[in-house]
Amino acid sequence: MIAVERKTTETNIRVEMAIGSGQADVKTGVPFLDHMMTVLARYAGLDLTIVASGDLRHHLIEDVALTIGEALRRVLPSTCARYGERTVPMDDALVHVVLDAGGRPFYRGPLPSSLYDHWMRSFCDASKVTLHVRVLRGTDRHHVVEAAFKGLGFALRQALVDTGAVFSTKGAVALEND
């Protein structure tokens, strides 16, 4: 279990994370964010504890994404499977998610919610994950965003598997922590 804290004048975030069984204890004060973080943990197979407070929803959502991204970067096995993909239907929504945990941050969306589209981008920047989210169908924003988080979780579950092999012609990439 690793712990990452992010404290600014706007937010105070603490994330504990381990690759595990998908247990989550999330307290951000934003019910939909709590729900999405619980969904992410469950589908990714991450044990996740989040305690967060902040001044504005935007700052809180962004800083939770940055802190979770940093935590994920720290728990990624160097010999992880690296790639993951999932298409998730949820009522009217159909969302396709593809990721590469190879150390290059990139996000391509968008999601029909600027706050959660920004969550995805911030998460990618901090975790150094490449993430493509394609909304194939859906008019209910809640269903589309939730399908995206479920797809992200499933794709992470695939990518996080420790295979014992390095899937790169460059060999293992070593990242230094400051």
Description:
The protein has 178 residues and is of the alpha/beta class. It has helices at residues 31-44, 57-75, 114-127, 141-159; strands at residues 2-7, 11-19, 24-27, 46-54, 83-90, 93-100, 106-108, 130-137. It has a 4-stranded mixed β-sheet with strand order 1-2-4-3, covered by helices on one side. A 4-stranded mixed β-sheet has the order 5-6-8-7. β3, α1 (31-44) and β4 (46-54) form a beta-alpha-beta unit. α1 (31-44) runs parallel beside α4 and α2 runs parallel beside α3. The protein is globular, with a radius of gyration of 15 Å. It starts with a strand and ends in a 19-residue tail after the last helix.
List the SSEs and their pairings.
Blueprint: E1 2-7, E2 11-19, E3 24-27, H1 31-44, E4 46-54, H2 57-75, E5 83-90, E6 93-100, E7 106-108, H3 114-127, E8 130-137, H4 141-159
Parallel strand pairs: 3-4, 7-8
Antiparallel strand pairs: 1-2, 2-4, 5-6, 6-8
Helix pairs in contact: 1-4, 2-3
Report the structural category.
alpha/beta
Instruction: Please outline the major beta sheet.
Output: 4 strands, mixed
**Average pLDDT, all residues:** 94
Task: Examine the coordinates and then state which fold CATH places here, giving the name of the CATH topology.
Answer: Ribosomal Protein S5, domain 2
Instruction: Sum up the overall morphology in one term.
Output: globular
- Unreliable spans are none
As a whole number of angstroms, the C-alpha radius of gyration is: 15 Å
